[in-house]
Amino acid sequence: MPINLKAPLRKLRGTGTGTIKIRTRGTRGHWRFYFAKREVRTAVSVLLVFFTLWLGVFAYFYIKYERIVDSRMRGQIFSTAAKIYANPAQIKVGDPFDAREVMGSLRRAGYEEDGQATSPIGTYGLVRHGIEIKPGPESYHSPEEATISAKDGKVTKISAGDQELGGYELEPELITGLFEGEQRLKRRLIRYEDIPKVMVDAVLAIEDRRFFQHSGVNYYRLLEAAWVNFRQRRYEQGGSTLTMQIARGFFLTPEKTTKRKLTEILISTILEQRFSKKQIFELYANQVYMGQRGSFTITGFGEAAQAYFGKDIKNLSIPEAALLAGIIQRPNYYSPYKYPERALERRNLVLETMVENNSLTRDGADRAKATPLKLTAPNVQAREAPYFVDLIKDTLLTRYNEHEINENSYRIYSTVDPQLQQAAAEAVEIGMKEVDAQITKLRTKTILVGKGRSAKKETVVRPGPQAQVALVAMDPRNGEVVALVGGRNYGISQLNHAMSKRPTGSVFKPFVYAAAINTGVTGAENVLTPSSMVDDSPTTFTYGDQIYEPRNYREEYHGPVTLRYSLALSLNNATVKVAEETGYDKVAELARAAGIRSVQPTPAMALGAYDATPLDMASAYTAFANGGVKVSPVLVKSLRDAKGNVIENFTTSKQQVMDPKVAYVMTNMMEGVLNFGTAYGVRTRGFTAPAAGKTGTSHDAWFAGYTTNLVCIVWVGYDDYSDLRLSGATTAAPIWAEFMKRAVAMPAYNDAQPFSPPDGVVSVTLDKVTNRLATSSCPDDYSAAFIAGTEPKENCESGNILTKIFGALMPKPAPPVSNPQAQPHPGQPAPAPGQQQVGQQPPGTEQPKEEKKPGFWGKLFGNKDEKKEDNGKPNSPQPPGTEQAPPR
Predict the structure, then answer these.
(1) How many helices (H) and strands (E) would you count in the chain?
(2) Are residues 365 and 474 in the same domain?
(3) Is 509 in the same domain as 605?
(4) For 396-404, which contacts have Cβ atoms below 8 Å and span 24 or more sequence positions?
(5) Count of the separate structural domains present in the chain
(6) What angle do CA 710, 712, 717 make, to 5 degrees?
(7) Are the C-beta atoms of 426 and 742 separated by less than 8 Å?
């Protein structure tokens, strides 16, 4: 029987009954809940502390980098650079006219087309049969509108208001900017509005498709990149957005670490809060690295468009924009110049991603893919004249502070002519290939390899230095340096050879003869003229206690010769004797006045033993081309501020260093150098304009020549001063001819006229045998210029009987040539290519005669007009087109 036990109960708090209920499990759960609640509180506390610490650290770094960003982005973000402009191109009535070329020139100068935008530089617009040009307030020129009218491809009229003009100067084109700092960085700042949509689409397609959607960081792309790097066990992908690339480029090092990536994310967040998407893309477009051009760093899309395509960024086509976008990832690896196949493949990939991104149609992509790479010529010599720019910078830094020039965005209006600079670069490139071939031939030797019967002949090319080059072209009327090449490859060597002092060799000789001809002006006791005789024979000269023994090339000597003949053939011994007879001090005085300041009055001076730079020699030769007035070189015409206000204008200095009559007589003598002397090769290469010049050979090779409106000096040699072993006629003169042929084809330089004699100069006709006045009895004659009163007075008939009998033994004023009828007469325009001056024979030459066996008198006395080459065959004293100048 069940027993119910009852006991007195206490009423428990919180219960409504006195019944005791014992639940063991319930008691244990209560304690578990108690402890669990305590752990949660602890965890929450820890998390709260951790979050507070993290927030503090984040706030610290956020504020830190926020200040850095604000400081870096406050005011002017990019370093500005002074801009260098070309010499303004001039259009004259009657010139060829191409509206597209003129508009392109104006756009490169900063003009905008009417209706599209308003540029402070100026605007232009097409009108009926021409173009209307409206310079703006910041133009180089005064803000006067002009209209150029044309018909049938020629300029018919140029009007400015009611006034008709004979010519009009276009706005100077922008060449380049001064590079920034030691990195030699080149950048052309652009605005977002300047960037064509196709360029934006191409960049976003390949670099950051969600740029306009994300807040600076694409976390999905970051995780994907992290997973790829984890699997491949190396850091290959970064997952960076454009904003993160800006953060890295502006504020961080390129190292690949987790810390840098976190900092990159933080800075990107700050940038997105500070700037709009368009502003961020603009920052990116001006900051991104786009490869190398020579020794310069290409930075930004603006500079890249010029570097790779020679275009303003606004004018980029779809395939061009895709190529630029494609090389962003690895500019040097995808360089279209070095690796065109890689670049093409990468460009086509960008076009495909643009289709995927719906920014380009399939048909548009296929057409763009079919387009070949159309790159501008990689020769920076032609486009940016880097040696010229360096020289401009060096010149300005003697007067202004570099920081002042760049930070104030000064405009530097230079004297360089872009077309002539292009011509100079092309001539150097063509000419140096010929020089390299000649050097290779000199270094090629045949050697025996092995011994005995097993020995074999092998052809080897001995190693040696590479020849360098310099070309300087000046306008002799105003001293403006219009083209300058200082070396064959600026990317390899920035040494400006146009400013390197080298022994001048025979290009110095005209100053010896000029001092001699000057005796006809000063009234010296012994007057020397072009027909004066000098003995070209081995001679020992003494100067003080020194002995000087010059030698002619191949030890060939000509005996008594005229000064005219001696200069044309560049005879050494005869030249030193002329200097001795004139007075070494007088020669040195004239040379120093002309700017060759290292000259000392010694016998060696006569053969160009003293140094001068090619730029010095170009300036010195202006005295011959400019009526005796030497003009100093000018590289900058005007320096202006960013608004176009003039800071300083530059002009040449002029000095009368020789009498105009002397300058003309010397020009007449140097015309003979081209027409029948050592530089006859210039004529055989197709240069036919009236010109004068002088070859030069020492350890180096030179050619100095000029027309009425252009002086050009070419130098070729080795940097280590070793002997080139080639003459100026075969190395420097061909480069000069290539340049001048291009120059005289340009409208600005095609008006080279025959040299005009000043008052006090007479031209007389002389007999070639006696060098006396020619008569009908002496029809074999030539013309020569003399200072009035110094010309020969006796005629050829007054010679004695022996002269007539042995006339062939008399010295000739110049050697015969192989094709005399193809040569121009001094002082007269040269025939156009393909034309011939019938019946005219150049001065100092003889018609080629059929070779005959020598008779009795020939066997007895020999024939001084015949000289032997190495093969022993008779020929003219100098093979046409070559100079065999003697070693100095």
Answers:
(1) 26, 35
(2) no
(3) yes
(4) 396/636, 396/639, 399/648, 400/639
(5) 3
(6) 175
(7) yes
* Structural domain includes residue 373: yes
The residue behind tokens 């870096």 is 72
DSSP notation for 361-410: -HHHHHHHHTSPP-PPPS-HHHHH-HHHHHHHHHHHTTTS-HHHHHHTT-
Instruction: Evaluate whether 149 touches 128 at the Cβ level (below 8 Å).
Output: no
The Cα-based distances of 182 to 179, 402, 411 in angstroms read 8, 12, 21
Q: Are residues 119 and 198 in the same domain?
A: no
Q: List, in order, residues 6 or more apart from 154 with CB less than 8 Å away.
A: 94, 95, 96, 97
Please give the pLDDT value at position 36.
Answer: 59
The answer as to whether 850 is a domain residue is: no
- Residue whose C-alpha is closest to residue 845's, from 805, 801, 878, 868: 878
For residue 171, being part of any structural domain is answered with yes
> Which backbone phi and psi does 787 adopt, to 5 degrees?
-65, 130
Residue 374's domain spans which residues? Answer: 179-378
The residue among 327, 361, 378 that closes a domain is 378
195 and 100 together in one domain: no
User: Do 268 and 125 share a structural domain?
Assistant: no
Burial grade of 48 (CB within 10 A; 0-12, 13-18, 19 or more)? exposed
Q: Where are the beta strands (DSSP E) in 698-804?
A: 701-706, 711-717, 761-767, 781-787
Q: What single-letter DSSP state applies at residue 583? A: -
Sequence-ordered list of residues with C-beta below 8 angstroms from that of 512, at least 6 positions apart, any chain: 575, 578, 579, 582, 587, 606
Residue of 203, 170, 234, 493 whose CA lies nearest to 323: 203
Those residues of the chain that have pLDDT short of 50 are: 1-25, 800-888
CA distance 853 to 755: 43
Residue 376 burial (C-beta neighbours within 10 Å; 0-12, 13-18, 19+): middle
Can you read off the two tokens belonging to residue 756? 């005009």
- In this prediction, residue 29 carries a pLDDT of 54
Q: Residue 97 is part of a domain; what is its CATH number? A: 3.30.2060.10
90-92 and 185-187: which strand pairing?
unpaired
Q: Give the pairing of strands 174-177 and 83-85.
A: antiparallel
The secondary structure of 629-691 as a DSSP string is EEE--B-EEEEE-TT--EEEE----EEE-S-HHHHHHHHHHHHHHHHHSTTHHHHHTT--SS-
Buried b (16+ CB within 10 A) or exposed e, 534-560: bebeebebeeeeeebebebbeeebbee
User: 176 pairs with which residues across the strands?
Assistant: 84
Contact 133, 106 (CB under 8 A): yes
CB 708 within 8 A of CB 861: no
Cβ neighbours of 569 (radius 10 Å): 27
Indicate if 152 and 231 belong to the same structural domain: no
- Using DSSP's 3-state secondary structure scheme, residue 122 falls into strand
Burial profile 596-626: b = 16 or more Cβ within 10 angstroms, e = fewer: beebebbbbbbbbbbebbbbbbbbbbbbbbb
pLDDT of residue 324: 96
The answer to whether 148 and 155 are in contact (CB under 8 A) is: yes
- Give, as one character, the DSSP assignment of residue 360: S
For residues 95 and 231, state if they share a domain.
Answer: no
Model pLDDT, residue 447: 85
Residues 116 and 218 both lie in one domain: no
* Confidence at residue 99, expressed as pLDDT on a 0 to 100 scale: 87
